[in-house]
Design brief:
312 residues; six-stranded antiparallel beta barrel; 3 helices; alpha+beta; six-stranded antiparallel barrel; elongated
Length: 312
């Protein structure tokens, strides 16, 4: 019985298909069926579309995260390069200032670089990269682009130690650039100021005065900036005035330094050397053969006495 029903249903389907293909009579039915079945199609396709959108979103998020990390790395590299550029710019400025300072120095100088600091907090010493191989000697003055920093106290083959002006064991003879008043500037252990010892209360010194090396003691050449007076205290119950001055050199910031090879001869030695050099030049000049005397040519008949020439 079931087989007969299926056979009848199959025949009906075939007939309907033939009729629809030949006469297009089932078009309105198909239209109505499309409207009815569209929501079912949409619901059936919803999981597939949801999965595709989720996959696209995850892929997009992963790519954005990767791109963000890449941009962060590039920004970090650019910041590092920018910092390096800023450091090189500042270094160039300092070197230019140092070269300008070297141009103003009459003595021979070489440029050294700071390579170390003394770890002892009670000593103000630095280590530079020039030593005996470069001609550095104990007591040699050291300065930066702004003024005197100190002197060499220990020389090694390829390095040297420099004692800074602010060390408690260091002192330097100075004079006020304004009026020539002489004093002794002593280190206090603080990198911010020096003290002037034994300055009378009536001494003509005031805040803002520039202190330069006086050249006394034959250790530091004269005329180099040392410090600028920042405080003068008079009538403090002490026999002398309290005078403090800030070093002009950038003791805590300078990296490149100048080592000065000054002429340490006394005026008598300079005069003696100059006299010896002059005597040597005179002897060399006397040892040279004398030039031949000029020979006068005979007068020509056509030449007048006024036109006579003498040739060597």
């Amino acid at each position: 019985m079931l087989g007969v029903r299926l056979l009848v249903l199959s025949v009906v389907c075939v007939v309907l298909m033939v009729v629809d293909a030949r006469f297009d009579t089932l078009k309105p039915v198909r239209s109505q069926m499309g409207l009815v079945l569209t929501p079912f199609y949409w619901l059936a396709d919803l999981p597939v579309r949801t999965w595709q959108r989720a996959t696209e979103q995850i892929s997009s998020s992963s790519s954005l995260v990767a791109e963000n990390e890449k941009l962060k790395a590039e920004a970090l590299l650019l910041q590092r390069r920018l910092q390096k550029l800023a450091m090189l710019t500042e270094q160039n400025v300092r070197l230019r200032e140092l070269l300008n300072s070297a141009a103003l120095v009459d003595d021979k100088v070489i440029v050294g670089e700071l390579i170390g600091l003394d770890p002892n907090p009670f000593t103000h010493r630095i280590l530079i990269d020039k030593g005996a191989q470069d001609g550095v000697f104990v007591g040699q003055p050291v300065l930066d682009a702004s003024g005197l920093m100190g002197q060499v106290v220990e020389v090694m083959p390829y390095a040297a130690r420099v004692l800074l002006l602010t060390d408690v064991t260091h002192s330097i003879p100075v004079q006020v650039n304004r009026n020539g008043l002489r004093a002794i500037a002593v280190g206090t252990g603080s990198p911010d100021y020096l003290e002037l010892r034994h300055v009378a209360e009536t001494a003509d010194i005031k805040e803002g005065d520039l202190l330069v090396s006086s050249g006394l003691g034959q250790r530091f050449p004269s005329g180099y900036p040392v410090a600028q007076v920042t405080e003068v205290v008079r009538g403090s119950g002490q026999p002398f005035s309290i005078v403090r001055a800030a070093p002009t050199a950038m003791l805590n910031r300078s990296r490149y330094l100048l080592l000065v090879f000054s002429d340490s001869r006394t005026p008598e030695e300079r005069a003696s050397d100059a006299a010896q050099a002059q005597a040597t030049a005179d002897r060399e000049a006397a040892a040279q053969p004398a030039p031949e005397a000029p020979v006068a040519e005979p007068e020509t008949p056509a030449a007048s006495p006024a036109s006579t020439e003498s040739r060597p």
